[in-house]
What we know:
- By secondary structure, this protein is an alpha+beta fold.
- It contains six helices and 18 strands.
- Helix 6 links the parallel strand 4 and strand 5 (147-149).
- The radius of gyration is 21 Å and the shape is elongated.
Amino acid sequence: MTSICESAQLGQFIPVQYHHNMLLDEARMQGFREAIEYVVKPGMKVLELGGGTGVLSLFASRTAEKVWCVERNPALVATARQTFARNYRGKIVEVVEADAFDYLPPEPVDVVICEMLHVALLREKQIEVIDSFKKRYLQKFGLPLPVFVPEACIQAVQPVQQNFVYEGCFITTPVFQNPVVSGTRTVSLADPAIFQSFSYDSELDMRCSWHGTIAATASGTLNALRFITKNILAISTRSQSTIDWHNAYLVLPLAEPQQIEAGDMIAIEFSYPVGAPLEALQPKVEVYSAAIARPRPQVTFQRVAIA
């Protein structure tokens, strides 16, 4: 089993005080509430893996017949139990102190909620947990699988020019950006390119890999790549639309920035295990000049220690 120390490093053992930031994330909260309200129908049974404070299970309890909320952090287990005791219909939620990698409900469920998500599917264990759950669930209960919230994921990468100067100091570190707030520090040099898409009820890949090219749409200094993770929380057949939530964007700096011109081709290659530390994402970038059709010097990413 994974040690608590390693779990903390990889985002699985987030202290309770940091969950306040997630509760204040209106896009996250509203997206999950809307998706759960759409998916969970009266009489359904729901399982949440990695429940944290229990807020997503609380959304489900408003309609479901029964909810199991699985959490391994004892402090969060206590918080979740207080949450359900103080909220309407919280009594139908059973908090289970267990590892999501091991737990199965006592009976089949209709919906599984799991939000162990980090941009680029790094650090947290969303993919591994759901993959493990599906295999064990099918062995015990057989088909059909429950509906998963989120239902699917789309990932993209985008070449950008990033301002790394802070109060006159040049400091290149990974940057996390609010996807709903436009900033002036980032200039797009090309359109985002999708490198991965999947649904959670299909076979899940344990690696995020891509080797492709993107055409520059603007001239500037290519000094970073921006990674975008769009979570499709639910697919509404009623409105023929999706209920979405984006993780914070991740901007990774390049060790050797270079000037590019509109029309240049930017070749990008990377491969890393899902749930790995941020340092595992080390793309290789090569720019091909549109004017002379030859490769420019290769650019690689510096390794940045993440506390």
